[in-house]
Amino acid sequence: MAETISIKRLLTPIVITVLAVYLTIGVSLGVLPKFIKQVLGFGDLTVGVILGIQALATLLTRAYSGKITDTLGSKTSTQRGVMLVLVAGIFYLLAGMATALPVLSLCLLALSRIIHGIAESMLATGALTWGIGLVGQHNSGKVMTWNGIAMYAGIAIGAPFSLWLVQFGTVLAFATIPLLSLVSWFSTRELPVVKVDGIHVRTPFYKVIGKVSIQGLALAFSSIAFACIASFISLLFTKKQWDGASLGFICFGGSYILTRVFFSAYPDRFGGFKVAIVSIIIEVAGQLCIGFSTTNWLAIAGCTLTGTGFSLVFPSLGVLAIKKVPPQMRGTALGAYAAFFDLALGIAGPVAGLIAGWFSYQAIYIFGAISCLLAVIILLFKQHK
Predict the structure, then answer these.
(1) Any residues with CB less than 8 A from the CB of 168 and at least 6 apart, and which?
(2) Each residue's pLDDT tens digit, 227-258
(3) What number of other Cβ atoms are within 10 A of residue 332's Cβ?
(4) In this predicted structure, what is the pLDDT of residue 124?
(5) Dihedral sign, Cα of residue 107, residue 108, residue 110, residue 115
(6) Global model pTM greater than 0.85
(7) Closest of 228, 14, 225 to residue 124, by C-alpha
């Protein structure tokens, strides 16, 4: 009982700081698609590229953030990430004020997304490693679960909140980003530093990627379903003249959180492989519901199923991934594993934008379902090798 209280006391500030940062990501996802298309006047491909830039920036800095976390400490990495969110927020504000010059506004958005992506890389790697360092590797599943809840709660709350807030002005919606970065900073300011192990020889990042590649590839393909919802669900509802785009975000995030709260012990109880397979199949069902939806309620049900399925994929495969490296390489391993998620988001946005232009918004979710099936095939192939 005392250990449980201690774990909660140590993890709560980290969960709050992660929640605040991912609220800023949710806000940007809620505002940007319509802002880029309807206010600035650019097309679906541009929407996908601008959204995908953040994930690519995160991907390209995973090795660096893992190195900083392992050598300078997880607290340093986390705090640098938070400060970069503040900088990104300032550029978002400038972009919102420059709508009279669409190209300039778009360039400022691109810069904002790059900085936001680097910030996410530093924050996510640092916070996970910090949490595991404070409560021990035997509690790594709990750390991943609660960090994941904070991440997707932030997106689930931030996106619909920004859709409501943007009615009063895009600049007002963007202004929440630097404010939330300050909340994130102060929540973990007093947490203790985890000692850095500087004695052991570090394994090169590319070798660590090789060690976690199977779990990473499965994570990547299964994450495309999430990217499809995050990037284009609001535009699908607008195109179909449906109400409830905000509810779709809320149902995705709500089902994601509830699944983690009630079933977080399943990867330990039944094994990460089995839980991942079942979870991804549920994702497939959700994507097909959206892809073939004839009403807004069927699309919302698809968002709910996708959130339910996606919820346990990261911890199921992530716990297996970090067991493949020694403790002093934990930050690098988490960075390498999460890089596959970034890669998926970076590719999915532009590809989904092209699919929307060639076919329809609903075709994007057929693409999401096929991607999830590829994740299942990768895991089954490895299992039977």
Answers:
(1) none
(2) 888 778 878 888 888 887 778 888 888 888 88
(3) 28
(4) 83
(5) positive
(6) no
(7) 14
